[in-house]
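User: Second chain of the day. Same drill as before.
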Amino acid sequence: MFDGRLNTPFAVFNIELTNHCPFKCVMCPRTHDMTRALGHMSFDVFQRIIDQLVDANPEYARNHGVWLHHFGESLVHPEFDRLMAYAAGRGVAPGLSVNPLMLTEKTAERLLMAKPAKLYLSLDGHDDESFARIRGVENAYQKSVERLLAFLEQKRALSPATRVILSMIHFDANIESIEKMRAYWENREGIDQFLDKPFTTFDGNSPEVSALRRREASPDTAPVSCKFPSQSVTITWDGDVVPCCFDFDKRYVLGNVLSESLADIWNGPALRALRLEFLSNRVENPLCRNCESLRQ
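Assistant: Same format as last time:
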């Protein structure tokens, strides 16, 4: 009888360098409902994670890399480039999602010198008013565009291999902006892809974010499913391990890398119980029960 243990090695989908963020994005549950402590991941914790990932699952580490963000702006971390460089040095290609407003000349240079494999540049709105309405920062759209264009020039010189995706989130407050800006960014030299990114309510536990959803949720009679319990984990800045990238407030902590190995957490009691819960088709834990992806 299956007891929730897996013979496959663990993978790490994303690592939260920090949960500090200067933005107040209306579609982010961090803005409305995150209650956990703020902090930056230490180099020692990051090193421990990367080393264990490379040792346990070198093929995944080499082929997929790792995302270095969760619910914070990674460029706020005072040593973001040092952490990125360590991952790259171990053969783990780092990827980030960042806000172009953060890309001052100095920060952009530090970022590009760390040679990220892939960057998502998140730019919503089409003018100062729409940017402020979505991202919560006044008089910042034009400055964001200027810094983004300057960044693309720096990228050409410092890290031409870095793949750049400009993303805009698809929800009602942003549809006009997407229509206005698609042609401008889609054909811009240095932008490898323009992404009209689907809107998500994450774990469904933020009423303000869920209120922005247009489509109806799947009926409760549909079977439950999720790839994350058998595929990978997410790690927050303080070393806590959670099941997925939707867990913004650590509702389902599986363990902590400071007291347990990732291999032990991967087949530990908390994650085994989560796998068995999905297998039973009755998911009632506080993280997953409201997730919009639960019955897709």
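The first helix runs from residue 29 to 33.

User: Great, on to the next one.
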